[in-house]
Amino acid sequence: MSIRYLIDENLPNLYREQLLRRSSDLTVWAVGAPGAPSRGTLDPEILFWCEQNNFILVTKNRASMPVHLAEHLAQNHHIPGIFVLRPKATIGQIIDDLILIAEVSEMSEYRDRITHIPL
């Protein structure tokens, strides 16, 4: 299965737009879009949605996401992965890494863990 991204609502839609502009064959959804979790959905519910729909979450939520992931895993659930953006990274660096990851990685490489990007 190819890598699919869910862009968290705390990120501007520019991330989704730039990913699709640079790599139109990617699957990139955003919280609040049709079919995705609605805006205001709690993080634990977003993790469950990602698990059910095989999406890697892209977020800047560094503070509480490790806690939510630990609770998710403790309940015998899994997650395709969480990519947390590094605070000083540029959007260009992040887009480059997300495209590279989608081109050369397998979904299973990020299962049940948080990866900080740029790598």
What can you tell me about this protein's structure?
- The chain has one domain: Rossmann fold.
- The protein is 37% helix and 17% strand.
- It is built from four helices and five strands.
- It has a five-stranded parallel beta sheet, with helices on both faces.
- Strand 4, helix 4 and strand 5 form a beta-alpha-beta unit.
- The model has no long low-confidence stretch (mean pLDDT 94).
Question: In a nutshell, what does this entry contain?
Answer:
With 119 residues, the protein is α/β, with parallel strands linked by helices. Helix content is 37%, strand content 17%.
Fraction of residues in helices? 25-40%
Instruction: Give the tally of structural domains.
Output: 1
Order of strands, widest sheet: 2-1-3-4-5
Q: What's the tally of helices?
A: 4
Question: Architecture in CATH?
Answer: 3-Layer(aba) Sandwich
CA gyration radius, whole angstroms: 13 Å
The count of DSSP E runs of length 2 or more, i.e. the number of strands, is 5
Give average pLDDT, whole number: 94
Q: Largest beta sheet, briefly?
A: 5 strands, parallel
CATH class: Alpha Beta
Q: What structural class results from the helix and strand content?
A: alpha/beta
> What is the fold-level CATH name, i.e. the topology?
Rossmann fold
Shape descriptor: globular
Uncertain ranges:
none
Order of helices and strands: EHEHEHEHE
Q: What's the assembly state of these chains?
A: single chain
Termini distance? 22 Å
